[in-house]
Specification:
Blueprint lengths: L16 H16 L36 H5 L9 E4 L4 H14 L4 E5 L16 E3 L5 H10 L4 E4 L5 H6 L1 H22 L2 E3 L2 E2 L23 H20 L2 E7 L1 E3 L12 H12 L1 E4 L7 E5 H13 L9 E3 L3 E3 L1 H11 L5 E4 L4 H6 L8 H7 L7 H13 L2 E2 L12 E2 L4
Parallel strand pairs: 1-2, 1-4, 2-3, 4-5, 5-7, 6-7, 7-11, 8-10, 9-13
Antiparallel strand pairs: 10-12, 14-15
Helix pairs in contact: 1-7, 3-9, 4-6, 6-7, 8-13
Bound molecules: nicotinamide-adenine-dinucleotide (NAD).
């Protein structure tokens, strides 16, 4: 077991007054979203009755592994949960579905996305159910939830920070309307709902070091605004309607098998592919940009811990979740010292630098540790080791000497 070592442990500052500001921000945001089709929220407020919008022309869902009537009669306590994962072909969804199918049974985990699973994706149980589900299509989502008798939803579909800045209108639709749809369906069908938040929910005025759960948010990106909206609305639905909404604020997630989907922490994955292919990398962040990061195994394990936690253990609905923090310069040194002495890192900051500058350098996740036993297994050194060895194995020939790294050709593309 690898030891987690936190570098930064400075005092935290709580600012409950920020919540009032956030609530106002949330109200303004929800009332402005009146143009989205295929949603019970399409023409206005959250109070519109979804039943009125469910069309009889709802697309037919392929329910090849849908549960039988006999299974339906089993009580929830006697069987594993049936889970719908949205955005399941993304960086995190693939890993989560694989782990959930191992734990809960292949047929109990319904993967969904708006893309086709392509050859080469690391899908451990390809025989499991996969359905098309656009999260903006409320009737379709409801049909899937009913057909598969879903108990839990993990809502992973989203547009991440860098791509959301380029397509703000689409990001508002996918991140806000998509979440509102699954949240309302969770209320109606009494589902447990997990939707990840992010360090991107914080902003330039947030205390940067050891950022607590409850503090000033004020994000200045579309991505962050949609995530604050998600957090507040989830908490509201929990308070008001008893929806079992749960969320963890993820840091940047590092993975070997799956490629990132357009975030600001993506450099910490790209760097390994470039180091192994060309022995050099043009980093889009400045050398001293410190951001919280986590290895994907920790992310998936922590997410399942939070999902499985008994409700009485939870003292809040949104938790910071941290592992370690590092800078591009520290990653550069770690690669040169341990794997590729001639690796050449260049710094070419772009628009993502401003996003990174608005985010915390480290998170205080003590409440997640106390309430549901969160404890990461990978510190920076362990993450770098997993990333280097795992990504090196994707290229041929496998590097036998460090100097071979520059001549490798990529053979797998997640
Ligand atoms: N990857 C990270 O480092 C990170 C960090 C913090 C938070 N998160 C959060 O975790 C979640 C998953 O992130 P990820 O990295 O896997 O993202 P990703 O971009 O890799 O995957 C997102 C998936 O959503 C799908 N999608 C897009 N629009 C959709 C729609 N309208 N309907 C259904 N699916 C749609 C995409 O096809 C894609 O497969 C997101 O909510 C993200 O904000 C990720």
């Amino acid at each position: 077991m690898l030891r987690f070592a936190s570098r930064l442990a400075l005092p935290t500052r709580r600012q409950p007054s920020a919540i009032l500001y956030l609530a106002a921000q949330h109200r303004a945001l929800t009332t402005s979203l009146s143009h989205v089709a295929s949603s019970p929220f399409a023409k206005g407020s959250v109070s519109r009755t979804p039943a009125a919008t469910v069309s009889t022309s709802t697309p037919v869902v392929s329910a090849r592994n849908a549960s039988t009537g006999a299974q339906a009669l089993q009580s929830l306590s006697q069987r594993p949960p049936r889970v719908l994962v949205t955005g399941s072909l993304g960086q995190l969804g693939l890993a989560l579905v694989n782990e959930m199918r191992t734990r809960y049974g292949v047929g109990n985990v319904v993967a969904s996305d708006i893309r086709k699973p392509t050859a080469g994706l690391p899908i451990a149980h390809p025989e499991g159910p996969f359905v098309y589900a656009d999260v903006m299509n409320y009737p379709l989502l409801e049909r899937i939830i009913v057909d598969f008798q879903i108990d839990w939803v993990v809502h992973y579909s989203a547009m991440l920070s860098a791509v959301a800045e380029k397509e703000p209108a689409r990001a508002l639709n996918v991140n806000i309307t998509g979440f509102q749809n699954v949240l309302e369906l969770s209320r109606i069908h009494k589902l447990r709902l997990f939707c990840p938040s992010t360090i991107g929910a914080f902003g330039p005025q947030t205390p940067k070091i050891n950022t607590p759960d409850l503090t000033i948010m004020n994000p200045n990106t579309i991505y962050g605004i949609t995530k604050v909206h998600m957090e507040l609305l989830g908490e509201y639905y929990h308070e008001k309607f008893g929806v079992d909404f749960r969320s963890a604020r993820y840091p940047g997630i590092l993975s070997v098998d799956t490629m990132p989907g357009g975030g600001t922490t993506d450099y910490a994955i790209d760097i390994f592919h470039h180091a192994l292919q060309t022995n050099s990398y043009n980093c889009f962040l400045k050398p001293e940009t410190r951001l919280p990061m986590m290895y994907i195994s920790d992310c998936i394990e922590g997410t399942l811990q939070l999902m499985e936690a008994p409700v009485e253990k939870l003292t809040q609905r949104v938790y910071n979740m941290a592992a370690d923090s590092f800078t591009p310069a520290e990653l550069d040194v770690a690669i040169r010292e341990h794997y590729a002495p001639d690796f050449q890192m260049n710094y070419v900051p772009d628009s993502r630098q401003a996003i990174a500058d608005s985010w915390p350098a480290s998170l205080d996740d003590s409440l997640a540790r106390r309430d549901w036993g969160w404890k990461p297994q990978y510190d920076t050194a362990a993450m770098v080791h997993k990333m280097w060895t795992g990504i090196a194995a994707q290229y041929t020939p496998r590097p036998t000497k460090l100097e071979d790294a520059g001549e490798l050709t990529k053979v797998t593309q997640a």
